[in-house]
Amino acid sequence: MASPTRVCRGCGERFEPRRYDQVFCRPCGDARHDIDLVDRYLRGTPNQGVERVSIATGVATDRIRELALAGQLETLPAGLDLHDRCTCPAGDTGRCPYCRQRVAQRIAEATQAARRATPGPRGLRARR
Ligand SMILES: [Zn+2]
Ligand SMILES: [Zn+2]
């Protein structure tokens, strides 16, 4: 009997899961791990440069750039010159690295403004 395989949620290739709840193949799982680290850090500390993010997360700067370029990161590091113009397909704006970066910067600015507006300890009880 052939061992059960599963389609990877990241790359769409078939792989043999080691655990029943595994949804990514090994390479994608590793990438996920880096993405999670970077995203989590940037969500908590937005608008950080790649170098800063790399030191904080232990993910190499090249790796962060690569993930950002591939559009994998939810939140992009600051000062990342990926593209100087929008490369979205027609009728589907907001998906290219340029657009995502602009959105990320706008969110980071809004977050910082909101933080300034509400002083005091944050997230002590609200943390999930
Ligand atoms: Zn995969
Ligand atoms: Zn775009």
Quick structural overview:
45% of the residues lie in helices and 3% in strands. The protein has 128 residues and is mainly alpha-helical.
Structural write-up:
With 128 residues, the chain is mainly alpha-helical. It has one domain (6-117). Helices cover 45% and strands 3% of the residues. The chain has 4 helices and 2 strands. The protein has helices at 26-44, 50-57, 61-69, 97-117, and strands at residues 6-7, 14-15. A two-stranded antiparallel sheet has the order 1-2. Helix 1 (26-44) packs across helix 2 (50-57). The longest helix has 21 residues, at 97-117. The chain is globular. The structure holds zinc ion (2 copies). Residues 86-88, 93, 96, 98-99 line the site of one zinc ion.
Features:
128 residues; mainly alpha; 4 helices; globular; binds zinc ion
Calculate the terminal CA-CA distance, rounded to whole Å.
Answer: 43 Å
Number of domains: 1
Low-confidence stretches: none
**Molecular shape:** globular
Main β-sheet description: 2 strands, antiparallel
The arrangement of helices and strands along the chain is EEHHHH
Percentage of residues in strands: under 5%
Structural class: mainly alpha
Helix content: 40-55%
Spatial arrangement of strands, main beta sheet: 1-2
Please state the CA-atom Rg, rounded to the nearest Å: 18 Å
* Average pLDDT: 84
Number of helices: 4
Bound molecules: zinc ion
| Number of E-state strands | 2
